[in-house]
Design a protein that fits this description.
Its EC number is 1.-.-.-. GO terms for molecular function: oxidoreductase activity. Keywords: Oxidoreductase. The structure is a single chain. This protein has 255 residues and is an alpha/beta fold. It has a single domain, classed as NAD(P)-binding Rossmann-like Domain (Rossmann fold, 3-Layer(aba) Sandwich). It is built from eight helices and seven strands. It starts with 10 loop residues before the first strand and ends in an 8-residue tail after the last strand. The N terminus is likely disordered. The structure holds NADPH dihydro-nicotinamide-adenine-dinucleotide phosphate (NDP). NADPH dihydro-nicotinamide-adenine-dinucleotide phosphate (NDP) binds next to helix 1.
Length: 255
């Protein structure tokens, strides 16, 4: 891993759900670019990633915030400002996945999924907005899912919540462009994390299915998503805004 730090300032990027999985890999990739990363989760734990050196880990700030609690992300942003940090970016990664047959989906489960996966994106974007405007602009990446364009049995609430992420991304990209704020939806395919560890393990039911359905015949890794997100924060992200970028090994377009 690179130890160079081209960005030694007090700028930082807020990543929600950064204690493990895809969020932790995003925190690694952004730190490898020399960025400071405010790692938010309910536990406030720093990313659990084996083999990360002290130089990278020193670029992480762990903060507790439950994205489903209105005001938690705003409070974390105020804390960062009080500590002298300037927020210049946000990655809305925290999310949950619960399956249920559509006819039996309870209103509680529907609300839980929409709160965690969609409403939280709106409230977190609103929370960082004043600091991004004060900084002269910034980058927001929302982690959606390739389920946003699929009809997946037992996933009514999850598919709807991730489709909402795409819509939120498009509206904010257009509305906040004049403030220099770019908003992009990164929509992963199946990525092996705690969210699906048992089903995706070799021999697990989901793994056997994926071996047939992903053209590359490999589930993606959290690092695949982290690398893409970091690219969007670099000059290579340049003219891109409002789009949904699928990172799914071609599964979403395979027939
Ligand atoms: P994990 O379950 O592995 O990790 C979830 C992370 O989010 C943890 O850091 C957890 O930390 C945090 N978190 C969960 N709920 C909250 C909350 N209410 N407030 C703050 N933090 C929270 O998930 P993944 O890494 O697999 O998924 C990350 C994102 O990627 C999700 O939005 C998911 O929908 C999306 N995605 C995942 C895919 C996959 O195949 N894994 C495919 C497509 C999209 P803590 O428990 O400490 O709060």
């Amino acid at each position: 891993m690179s130890d160079s730090n081209p960005n030694p300032s007090r700028d930082c990027v807020v990543v929600t759900g950064a204690s493990r999985g895809i969020g932790a890999a995003i925190a690694v990739a952004l730190a490898q670019q020399g960025r400071h990363v405010a790692c938010l989760s309910r536990s406030g734990a720093l990313p659990a990633v084996p083999g990360v050196n002290e130089v990278l880990a020193a670029r992480w700030i762990g903060l507790k915030a439950d994205v489903t609690q209105a005001g938690d992300v705003a409070k974390a942003c105020r804390q960062l400002a009080d500590d002298g940090w300037r927020v210049t970016g946000l990655v809305n990664n925290a999310g949950v996945h619960v399956e249920a047959p559509s006819a039996e989906l309870t209103l509680d489960t529907w609300n839980q999924m929409m709160d965690a996966n969609a409403t939280s994106v709106v409230t977190a974007c609103q929370a960082v907005y004043p600091q991004l405007v004060a900084a002269g602009g910034g980058v927001i990446v929302n982690i959606g899912s390739f389920f946003d364009k699929l009809g997946v049995k037992r996933n009514l609430a999850y598919c709807a919540s991730k489709a909402a992420v795409g819509a939120i991304t498009r509206v904010l990209a257009v509305e906040w462009a004049s403030k220099g704020i770019k908003v992009i939806d990164v929509a992963p395919g199946y990525i092996q994390t705690d969210l699906n560890a048992d089903a995706m393990a070799p021999g697990g039911p989901l793994r056997a299915y994926l071996d047939k359905r992903i053209p590359g015949r490999q589930p993606g890794t959290a690092a695949d998503v982290g690398a893409l997100v970091a690219t969007l924060f670099s000059p290579a992200g340049g003219f891109l805004t409002g789009e949904t970028i699928y990172v799914d090994g071609g599964q979403g377009i395979a027939h």
